[in-house]
C-alpha cells in the first residue's frame, strides 16, 4: 500500500508539468485552432527565467575585506552580491535563496510579451493555412527559440536551487498513519504540485467565472457568432495565447529546481505533452489535465523495479503505448468531443 | 525511353550528369585559396548529399504526394544502419547483404507502423509516427541493448563471427573488393578533384531510386496518391479504398529511409540510436520543405543545402570572420563579427531555423518554387506573376 501511494506521489510532479503544458496547448488549439509545436520552447524559456533571476540576484562586485586575510596575508577579496549591500546581508541572502519563486515575477511579463508577440507576429498569418503548415512554422520557431537560449546560456544544464527552506523531504507516511520514513516526499515537489493545482484552478476559474472567460468560451464554441455580436474576439484570443504561454512559462520556472534547465528540455516535454493532449482529447481542457496526471502517475508506476522486472523497458514506452491504444480505440481521447479533428 | 516521356528523360539525364560530375562541380575554388573552405567536393560530405538525398526523396513520396506528415521517419534510418552493421558482424564487410537486409527490415517496420498509424490522418498521424519513433529510440537505449549496444552504438568487434571473411578480405566496408574509402585524387592546375568509390556507389543507388520515384510520380499509383492529398473523402465515395495505397507508399518510403540508413553504415561502419531520435525525423522534414515538397528535385536540393550548411557553415568561427573583414576599419570589423557570430559555427541551427520559418511563411514551395518564380520573372518581366498557371503544377514539376 505504501509503495502505491509513494508512486502516485512521485508521478504527481511530472504529471503536473504535463498537465500545465498540455493545458496551454489545448487552450491555444481550442481558441485559435493552431497546433503549437513551440509550446515546449515556451516551457523551456520559463525555466531559463529562473536561471536568469538566479544570475541577476547573484550579480556581485568585489570588495576588500580588511578584517580577513587570504593565505598570503593580503586582505581578502570577497564577492558581495549587490542585493546584499543594498538590503543588508540577511535580506539579501533570503532573496538569493528564493530566486526561483521570485523568478515568477519576471516570468509573467516576459512570457506574456513573448506569447502575444508570437501570436501577433507569426501565428496570426497561419489561421487559414493547413495544420501541417502550422506544425512546420511553429516547429521552426521552436528551433529558433532553442538556439537563441543556447547561444546565451550555453549547451550545458544549469543547476538552479530551490529555496533552502524547502530542501528536505516531508515524511508523508506519518501524516496518514504509516510507519516513519515509509513514504517520504521532497518538499519542493509537493510545492510544485500545489502550485500547479493553484494555476490550473486559476485558469479554470478565470474561464468559468469572469466575463472575459465567458466570451472566450463562447468564442471557442462559435467564433463567428461571437464576432457578429460586436465582440473583438481576435484580441481576446491573442490574450489567451499570452496566458497559455505564461502558464507554460510558470510551469517551467517552478520545474527548474527539479530538472536543471538545458536548452533542449522543451522539446523533450513537448513530445510527451502532445501525447497527453491527444490522450486527453484534442480541445478538451479537463481532458488535458486529467491525462497529464494519469500519464505522469502511470510513468512513475512503470519505473518501479517490480514492474520493470515483469515487462522490461515498459518505463520507456508506457506513455506512447497508452497513446497508441487510445488513438486506435477512442480517437477523440478520454474527454474529447467527437468530431474535433477526428478523421 | 525507360518508360519516361522525352522531357522527363532529358531531366533524368541532367540529374545523372549532375550526380556523376558532383566531385568536379562542388570544387569550384582552387586548393589553398581563401575560398577553399567553401568547397564541398570531399568524399564524406558528397556521400552525405547522396544518402540524405535518398532519405528525402523517400520522405517526399509520402509527404509530397499524399500530404501525410510523418514525424517518425528516422526509425527506418536507424533500423537500416543496425541491419548493415549486423551483417558486417555476422558475414563480413561486403555491404550488399546488409543493404538488402536494411531494405527488407525497414519495409517490415514500415508495414507494422504504417498499418497502425494510417488508421488516423492529419495531426494524429504525425503524433502516432512520432510516438513509434520515440518508442523505438527509447527501447534501443534500454531493452534492445543486446541488439543495439545501447549508448556505445553497434560496431564490429574482433570477437564477431564474420563467417564470410577470408584471410585476404578487406577490413572495411567494400563491394566485392572495391573499398568504399578508396578514392582517386586528380590534381588539375590548382584544383584537386577527389573521385571516391563510396560516393559513386551511393550516387548510382541515388540515381536508381530517383528514377524509381520519377516512375512513381508519373504512374497511376502516383495519381491516386495525389488524389488522396486533394480530397480523400471524395475518393472514398468514388469507391476507391485508399488504405492499401497509403500503406504501400508508407512502406516504400520507409524502405527508402532504410536504404539511406544502411548506406550511412556502409560508408562508416557504426550505428547508434541517436539516428532514430526525433531530431533526425525533423531534419528530413526540414530538407523536404526547404527544397520543395511534392517536387521531384526539391528534396534532393534541400538535403544538399542543409548538409552543406552543416558541414561548411559550422566551421566558420570568430577568427575566420575577423579575417574576412580584416580589410575594414577595426570597429566595423568587430561589429560585423559580433552580429554574424551567433549565426555561424555552433549557431548554424539558428540560421537554419530562421530560414525554415521564412520559407514556410513566404515560400511554401521551397527552393523549387523560388527558382520557378525567378525563371518566370526572367521570361516575362512585364507581366504580373501567377494567375496563368494552374495551382497544381508544382506537383508535376
What does this structure look like?
- The complex is a heterodimer of chains A (343) and B (397).
- Chain A has 343 residues and is mainly α.
- Chain A has helices at residues 2-32, 39-58, 82-87, 89-97, 99-121, 131-153, 172-175, 187-209, 211-221, 223-228, 233-255, 265-280, 285-302, 305-310, 314-329, and strands at residues 60-69, 75-81, 169-171, 184-186.
- Chain A has one domain.
- Chain A has 15 helices and four strands.
- In chain A, the strands form two sheets. In chain A, strands 1-2 form a two-stranded antiparallel sheet.
- In chain A, α8 packs across α9 (211-221) and α12 (265-280) crosses α13 (285-302).
- The longest helix of chain A has 31 residues, at 2-32.
- The two termini of chain A are 42 Å apart.
- The relative contact order of chain A is 0.19.
- Helix content of chain B is 62%, strand content 4%.
- Chain B is globular, with a radius of gyration of 22 Å.
- The interface between A and B is large, with 40 and 42 residues.
Gross geometry of chain A: globular
Question: Element order, helices and strands of chain B?
Answer: HHHHHHEEEEHHHHHHHHHH
Quaternary form: heterodimer
Strand order of the largest sheet of chain B: 1-2
* Low-pLDDT segments of chain B: 385-397
CATH fold name of the domain at 6-278 in chain B, please? ABC transporter involved in vitamin B12 uptake, BtuC
Largest interface by residue count? A-B, 40 and 42 residues
Query: Biggest sheet of chain A, in brief?
Result: 2 strands, antiparallel
CATH class of the domain at 6-278 in chain B: Mainly Alpha
SS strand fraction of chain B: under 5%
Structural class of chain A: mainly alpha
Annotation keywords:
heterodimer; A: 343 residues; mainly alpha; 15 helices; 4 strands; 7% strand; globular; B: 397 residues; ABC transporter involved in vitamin B12 uptake, BtuC; two-stranded antiparallel ribbon; 62% helix; 4% strand; disordered C terminus
Amino acid at each position: 500500500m505504501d509503495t502505491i501511494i509513494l508512486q502516485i506521489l512521485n508521478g504527481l510532479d511530472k504529471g503536473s508539468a504535463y498537465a500545465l503544458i498540455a493545458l496551454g496547448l489545448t487552450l491555444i488549439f481550442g481558441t485559435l485552432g493552431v497546433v503549437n509545436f513551440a509550446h515546449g520552447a515556451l516551457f523551456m524559456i520559463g525555466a531559463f527565467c529562473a536561471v536568469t533571476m538566479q544570475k541577476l540576484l547573484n550579480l556581485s562586485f568585489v570588495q576588500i575585506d580588511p578584517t580577513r586575510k587570504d593565505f598570503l596575508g593580503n586582505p581578502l577579496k570577497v564577492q558581495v552580491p549587490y542585493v546584499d549591500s543594498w538590503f543588508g546581508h540577511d535580506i539579501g541572502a533570503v532573496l538569493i535563496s528564493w530566486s526561483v519563486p521570485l523568478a515568477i515575477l519576471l516570468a509573467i511579463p516576459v512570457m506574456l510579451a513573448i506569447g502575444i508577440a508570437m501570436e501577433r507576429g507569426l501565428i496570426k498569418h497561419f489561421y487559414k493555412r493547413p495544420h501541417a503548415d502550422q506544425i512546420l512554422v511553429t516547429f521552426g520557431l521552436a528551433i529558433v527559440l532553442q538556439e537563441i537560449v543556447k547561444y546565451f546560456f550555453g549547451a550545458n544544464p544549469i543547476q538552479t536551487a530551490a529555496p533552502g527552506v524547502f530542501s528536505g523531504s516531508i515524511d508523508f507516511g506519518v501524516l496518514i498513519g504509516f510507519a516513519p520514513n515509509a513514504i517520504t516526499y521532497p518538499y519542493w515537489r509537493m510545492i510544485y504540485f500545489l502550485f500547479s493545482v493553484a494555476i490550473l484552478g486559476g485558469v479554470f476559474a478565470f474561464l468559468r467565472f469572469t466575463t472575459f472567460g465567458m466570451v472566450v468560451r463562447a468564442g471557442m464554441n462559435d467564433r463567428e457568432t461571437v464576432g457578429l455580436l460586436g465582440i473583438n474576439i481576435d484580441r481576446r484570443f491573442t490574450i489567451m495565447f499570452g496566458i497559455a504561454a505564461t502558464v507554460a512559462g510558470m510551469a517551467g520556472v517552478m520545474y527548474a529546481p527539479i530538472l536543471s534547465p538545458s536548452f533542449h528540455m522543451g522539446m523533450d516535454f513537448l513530445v510527451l505533452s502532445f501525447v497527453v493532449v491527444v490522450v486527453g482529447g484534442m480541445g478538451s481542457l479537463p481532458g488535458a489535465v486529467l491525462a497529464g496526471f494519469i500519464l505522469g502517475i502511470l510513468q512513475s508506476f512503470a519505473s518501479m523495479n517490480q514492474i520493470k522486472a515483469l515487462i522490461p523497458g515498459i518505463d520507456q514506452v508506457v506513455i506512447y503505448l497508452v497513446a497508441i491504444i487510445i488513438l486506435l480505440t477512442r480517437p477523440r481521447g478520454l474527454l474529447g468531443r467527437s468530431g474535433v479533428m477526428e478523421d | 525511353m525507360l518508360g519516361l516521356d522525352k522531357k522527363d528523360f532529358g531531366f533524368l539525364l541532367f540529374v545523372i550528369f549532375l550526380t556523376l560530375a558532383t566531385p568536379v562541380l562542388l570544387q569550384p575554388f582552387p586548393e589553398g585559396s581563401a575560398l577553399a573552405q567553401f568547397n564541398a567536393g570531399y568524399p564524406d560530405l558528397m556521400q552525405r548529399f547522396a544518402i540524405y538525398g535518398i532519405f528525402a526523396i523517400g520522405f517526399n513520396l509520402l509527404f509530397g504526394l499524399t500530404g501525410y506528415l510523418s514525424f517518425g521517419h528516422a526509425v527506418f534510418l536507424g533500423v537500416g544502419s543496425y541491419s548493415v552493421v549486423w551483417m558486417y558482424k555476422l558475414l563480413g564487410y561486403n555491404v550488399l547483404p546488409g543493404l538488402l537486409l536494411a531494405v527488407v527490415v525497414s519495409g517490415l517496420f514500415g508495414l507494422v507502423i504504417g498499418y497502425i498509424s494510417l488508421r488516423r490522418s492529419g495531426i494524429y498521424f504525425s503524433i502516432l509516427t512520432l510516438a513509434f519513433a520515440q518508442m523505438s529510440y527509447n527501447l534501443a537505449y534500454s531493452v534492445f541493448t543486446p541488439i543495439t549496444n545501447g549508448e556505445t552504438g553497434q560496431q564490429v568487434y574482433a570477437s564477431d563471427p564474420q563467417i564470410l571473411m577470408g584471410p585476404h578480405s578487406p577490413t572495411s566496408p567494400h563491394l566485392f573488393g572495391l573499398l568504399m574509402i578508396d578514392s582517386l585524387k586528380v590534381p588539375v592546375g590548382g584544383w584537386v578533384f577527389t573521385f571516391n568509390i563510396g560516393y559513386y556507389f551511393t550516387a548510382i543507388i541515388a540515381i536508381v531510386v530517383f528514377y524509381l520515384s520519377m516512375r512513381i510520380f508519373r504512374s497511376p499509383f502516383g495519381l491516386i496518391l495525389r488524389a488522396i492529398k486533394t480530397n480523400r473523402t471524395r475518393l472514398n465515395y468514388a469507391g476507391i479504398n485508399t488504405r492499401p495505397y497509403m500503406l504501400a507508399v508508407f512502406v516504400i518510403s520507409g524502405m527508402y529511409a532504410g536504404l539511406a540508413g544502411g548506406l550511412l553504415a556502409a560508408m562508416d561502419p557504426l550505428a547508434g540510436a541517436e539516428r532514430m531520435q526525433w531530431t533526425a525525423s525533423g531534419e528530413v522534414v526540414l530538407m523536404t520543405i526547404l527544397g520543395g515538397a511534392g517536387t521531384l528535385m526539391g528534396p534532393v536540393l534541400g538535403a544538399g543545402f542543409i548538409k552543406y550548411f552543416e558541414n561548411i557553415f559550422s566551421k566558420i568561427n570568430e577568427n575566420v570572420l575577423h579575417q574576412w573583414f580584416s580589410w575594414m576599419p577595426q570597429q566595423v570589423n568587430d561589429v560585423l563579427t559580433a552580429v554574424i557570430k551567433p549565426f555561424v559555427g555552433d549557431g548554424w541551427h539558428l540560421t537554419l531555423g530562421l530560414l525554415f520559418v521564412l520559407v514556410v511563411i513566404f515560400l511554401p514551395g521551397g527552393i523549387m518554387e523560388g527558382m520557378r518564380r525567378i525563371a518566370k520573372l526572367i521570361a516575362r518581366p512585364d507581366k504580373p506573376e501567377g494567375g496563368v498557371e494552374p495551382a497544381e503544377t508544382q506537383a508535376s514539376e
